[in-house]
Amino acid sequence: MDLILYIQRILYPQKSFSRFVACAADAGGEQAFPNQKGENFYLRKSDCIFMKSSAPLFRGTATALITPFQKGNPELIDEDAFRMLVRAQCLAGISALIVAGTTGEASALTAKEHIRLITLAKEESLGKIPVIAGCGAPTTARAITLAKEAADAGADAALVVTPYYNKCSQEGLYRHYTSIADAAACPVILYEVPSRTGMHVALETYIRLSKHENICAVKDATANLERVALLRDAVGSDLTIYAGSDSVIVPMLSVGAAGVISVLSNVCPHAVIAMCNAWFSGDSLYAAQLQCHYAPLIRALFSEVNPIPVKTAMAALGMCADEFRLPLCEMSEEDTKKLLRMIKDI
Question: Would you give the DSSP letter of residue 236?
Fold first, then answer.
């Protein structure tokens, strides 16, 4: 315990907690000690505290994985196909994985399935890359439960979308996220996608949230570059920013994003990895060329509601069955033909 107290009170008296892990040394029992706010942390062996770091959780490309269902029986997850998807992404050199997110049809999954996907992803990735779990919900209590269960299953972070349908004020949004971050045993990534939720996060709210010790990043799916530039300037290194739209990966990198949470990388991870690597190595021209080259495919992958097109594409590539859970259903015949023509050229 002395080491932990030393870290907190002597080495980093002005720091907040987020991702640096210090484990309790004693084998049993429970001991409390106060943080800077006068609150107690209760530590057992393998319990941990986190110290906020300017280093991003990941840098580059994270794939928002689809969830494959069994052929002819979409009520069951195809675990073999999911394992294969995770292995393929790892072999491609992806930087992180998002499971049970929007692209993974999270709202159609049971709580048990949510945890199972995290467990499978951790097993197949062998701890080599972060596994980030979608933990968004319309209510704060439900999101807290998801985040706690995800951390217990080994998730390295929780991706939490703004409440959907259950719209709230900016103060309510601040309390929603801080309540989740207070309760979660893993870092929290904020997720703004107003096209799905009808909710915007105000710049002032981001600034307030950036001060929380357990909120580490933002997935921005607004594609509003001016707003992202203002956010980057306002929060500095307190929040890592990730692009949440494949159509603006390179533009987002140009205003300070550390990478992308990508749908496109399900289909062609090499392309998105190359795009990010080119930018980070200083070859902005090649990065821009790749962004433009894949623009038609990106448009096709969002020609209908995500994840219908990307799952259709993956089925065409033999990686999963073309199965969805209602209300999602198969892609229209016309859009499917257009998409498959593009897939052949990958």
Answer: G
